[in-house]
C-alpha cells in the first residue's frame, strides 16, 4: 500500500489557464437529498462549488430548493422526480455525484435507476451513501462511466460482501477489481483502490467523525474530477487528501470540524497550493 503525500496536491492543483470560462472547469450534477436528508446533498453541493467546478446543479427533493439557495446561490436546482430534466442534467455533466441523502425507499430507487440509465463512459460517476446501499440491496448493475465508489466500511460490506472485520487489502482488491471501479474506502486512514495501485491516506483526525463529512468528500471528488478532468485518477486522490489536510488544520483550534467549514476553506487552501513551487513543502503553509 502506497502512502499518499502532499505531492498529489501540487500535481493536481495548478494555476488556471487565463483563456478559460466556467465551461473549462466542468459541470457537476449532484443527485440526492430526500425530504429528511436535504443537508447531505447541500453539503455535497457546497463542496463541489467550493472545489472549483465550473457549473453545479443539484437535483433533489422540492423541499430543499430554498435551503439550497439560501446556503449556496451558486448552485442550480432541479426536482429529482422530474425524470426528463434529471436525464438531461446527467447527460450534460462532466461528473455525476449520486447518493448523499438519497434515501432507500421506492422513490429513491426510481431516481437512482434514472440516473444510472443516463450516464456514459466519458463521465466520472461518484456513487456514495444511499446509492451504494440501494445498489447492494436491490442488486442494481453498475452504470456506464469512470466509476468511483466512496463507501464507509458498512457500505463497503453491503456492496462487496466482505464483513467489516475482514476487509483486508487483498480481499478489498479482489472485490474492487471485480467491480472495475475506483473504491475510496473511508475510515481513519482511508484506503483508495484504483485500477493499478492501492493508496493509504496517512492524515485525518477523529475531529472528522461528524455526520456530513463523507457527503462533503463526495462533493469534493465530484468537483475535482470535473475541474481536473484531464487527470481524473489523480483528482480523486487529491480530493481525498485535501479533505483531511484542511480538516487537520481546522482541528488545531477546534474539537470537531464541521463539514461545511472544510468546503468554505477550500478556495483559500487551493490558492496556496497553486502558488507552491516544487521545492517548497506544504508544511510551511501555516
Ligand atoms: N445531514 C444529513 O442529511 C445527513 C445525511 N446522511 C445520509 O444518510 C444516508 C444514510 O447514511 P448513514 O451512513 O448515516 O447510514 P448507513 O448507511 O445505514 O450506515 C450506518 C450504519 O452502519 C454502521 N457502521 C459501521 N461502521 C461504520 C462506519 N465506519 N461508518 C459509518 N457507519 C458505520 C453504523 O453503526 P452504528 O453507528 O449504529 O454503530 C450504522 O448501523 C446516506 O445517504 C447519507 O448520505 C448522512 O451523511 C448523515 C448526515
Ligand atoms: N476517526 C477518523 N479519522 C479520520 N477520518 C475520519 C474519522 N472518522 C470519520 N472520518 C472521515 O469522515 C468521513 C465519514 O464519511 P461518512 O460515514 O460517509 O459520513 P456521512 O455519510 O455522514 O457524510 C470519511 O471521509 C472518513 O474518512
Ligand atoms: Mg456517507
TrEMBL record:
CDD domains: YXKO-related (cd01171). Its EC number is 4.2.1.136. Its cofactor is Mg(2+). Residues 5-273 form the YjeF C-terminal domain. It catalyses: (6S)-NADHX + ADP = AMP + phosphate + NADH + H(+); (6S)-NADPHX + ADP = AMP + phosphate + NADPH + H(+). Transmembrane segments: none annotated. Keywords: ATP-binding, Lyase, NAD, NADP, Nucleotide-binding. The keyword Nucleotide-binding applies. It holds the Pfam family Carb_kinase. (6S)-NADPHX binds at residues 40, 101, 152, 215. It is an enzyme of class 4 (lyase). InterPro entries: Carbohydrate_kinase_pred_CS, CARKD, Ribokinase-like. One of its GO terms (biological process) is metabolite repair. It comes from the Bacteria. AMP binds at residues 186-190, 214. GO terms for molecular function: ADP-dependent NAD(P)H-hydrate dehydratase activity; ATP binding; NAD(P)HX epimerase activity. Catalyzes the dehydration of the S-form of NAD(P)HX at the expense of ADP, which is converted to AMP. Together with NAD(P)HX epimerase, which catalyzes the epimerization of the S- and R-forms, the enzyme allows the repair of both epimers of NAD(P)HX, a damaged form of NAD(P)H that is a result of enzymatic or heat-dependent hydration. Homotetramer. Belongs to the NnrD/CARKD family. This is ADP-dependent (S)-NAD(P)H-hydrate dehydratase. It comes from Limosilactobacillus rudii. The gene is nnrD.
Amino acid at each position: 500500500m502506497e502512502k499518499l503525500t502532499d505531492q498529489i496536491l501540487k500535481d493536481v492543483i495548478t494555476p488556471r489557464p487565463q483563456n478559460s470560462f466556467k465551461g473549462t472547469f466542468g459541470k457537476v450534477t449532484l443527485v440526492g437529498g430526500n425530504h429528511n436528508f436535504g443537508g447531505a446533498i447541500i453539503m455535497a453541493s457546497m463542496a463541489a462549488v467550493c472545489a472549483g467546478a465550473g457549473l453545479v446543479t443539484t437535483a433533489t427533493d422540492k423541499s430543499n430548493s430554498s435551503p439550497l439557495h439560501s446556503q449556496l446561490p451558486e448552485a442550480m436546482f432541479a426536482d429529482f422526480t422530474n425524470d426528463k430534466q434529471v436525464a438531461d442534467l446527467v447527460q450534460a455533466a462532466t461528473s455525476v455525484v449520486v447518493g448523499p441523502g438519497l434515501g432507500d425507499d421506492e422513490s429513491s430507487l426510481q431516481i437512482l435507476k434514472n440516473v444510472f440509465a443516463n450516464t456514459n463512459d466519458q463521465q466520472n460517476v461518484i456513487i456514495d451513501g444511499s446509492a451504494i446501499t440501494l445498489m447492494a440491496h436491490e442488486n442494481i448493475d453498475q452504470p456506464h462511466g469512470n466509476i468511483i465508489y466512496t463507501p464507509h466500511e458498512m457500505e463497503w460490506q453491503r456492496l462487496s460482501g466482505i464483513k467489516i472485520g475482514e476487509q483486508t487489502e487483498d480481499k478489498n482488491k479482489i472485490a474492487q477489481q471485480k467491480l472495475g471501479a475506483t473504491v475510496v474506502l473511508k475510515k481513519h486512514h482511508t484506503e483508495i483502490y484504483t485500477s493499478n495501485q492501492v493508496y493509504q491516506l496517512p492524515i485525518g483526525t477523529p475531529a472528522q467523525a461528524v455526520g456530513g463529512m463523507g457527503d462533503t468528500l463526495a462533493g469534493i471528488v465530484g468537483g475535482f474530477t470535473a475541474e481536473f478532468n484531464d487527470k481524473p485518477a489523480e483528482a480523486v486522490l487529491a480530493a481525498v487528501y485535501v479533505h483531511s489536510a484542511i480538516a487537520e488544520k481546522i482541528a488545531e483550534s477546534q474539537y470537531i470540524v464541521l463539514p461545511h467549514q472544510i468546503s468554505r476553506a477550500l478556495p483559500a487552501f487551493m490558492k496556496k497550493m497553486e502558488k507552491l513551487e516544487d521545492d517548497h513543502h506544504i508544511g510551511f503553509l501555516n
